[in-house]
Amino acid sequence: MSKLEVNEKVIRTLAGLLDETDLSEIEYEADGHRIRLVRGGTVVHAAAPAAVAPVAAPAAAPAASDAGGVPANAITSPMVGTAYLAGEPGAPTFVKVGDTVSEGQTLLILEAMKVMNPLPSPKSGVVKQILVSDGQPIEFGEPLMVIE
After folding, report:
1. pLDDT at 42
2. 43-148: what fold?
3. With left for phi above 0 and alpha for psi between -120 and 50, is residue 135 left, alpha or beta?
4. Domain spans of the chain, in order of start
5. What is the dihedral of CA 23, 126, 116, 14, to 10 degrees?
6. In 3-state terms, what secondary structure has residue 13?
7. Is the pTM above the cut of 0.85?
8. What is the pLDDT of residue 46?
9. Digit-coded pLDDT (tens) for 128-142
10. Which residues, 6+ apart, have CB-to-CB distance to 12 below 8 Å?
């Protein structure tokens, strides 16, 4: 494998593609070298938990917002991956419907490319609805839970 010489033009082109396509990450490989750009966020490494049965049934559906069917006050996924409601198999879930959460408190884990990313609550409030089940594949922008 040859020594990697970073081509700033390639990096800028890839970064532009992230913005144009609203992707959360992009990977490029050439000549045995791989470059991966990831938009924002904190990365935490941990072992992947095994899938378990859903923990809580969703509460009554809140009113939809103007964003095309996304519930009002919904926390949406910042990336494509798999949602885990607990830190490991058999452990209690991070939150459940009716819990009061603080800003910055971990709501769930989003696993993407074998990297575990805790999703912090963007605000304080009460968990009104959990819209995903444990181990469920999720898309960028998909509603995950409602906090009011």
Report:
1. 42
2. OB fold (Dihydrolipoamide Acetyltransferase, E2P) (2.40.50)
3. left
4. 8-38, 43-148
5. 10
6. helix
7. no
8. 42
9. 999 999 999 999 999
10. none
